[in-house]
Amino acid sequence: MALALIRAIKGPTQYDRILAVNMFGTKTVLLLAVLAFLIGRPDFLDLALAYALVNFIGVLAVLEFFKIKAGGAD
After folding, report:
1. Where are the domains of the chain?
2. Rounded Cα–Cα distance for residues 5 and 26 (Å)
3. Where does the record place a coiled coil (predicted)?
4. Whole-structure pTM value
5. Tens of pLDDT along 61-70?
6. Which residues does the chain have with pLDDT short of 50?
């Protein structure tokens, strides 16, 4: 996760930064799922799924914003 944060900060392009943030979100979902299993709290899986959905929709929204900003609107 630390390497993803470093790439998000130092990424040479905006798309590298977006990919790093997406990777950080995916690893957070995995961490929540493993934590739910280890603690024995299956309700944490609901949080992990909700976070995954928010992460996915957020990345799509940011990519669409950059597409429109670059003049590639359909």
Report:
1. 2-69
2. 13
3. none
4. 0.78
5. 998 888 877 7
6. none
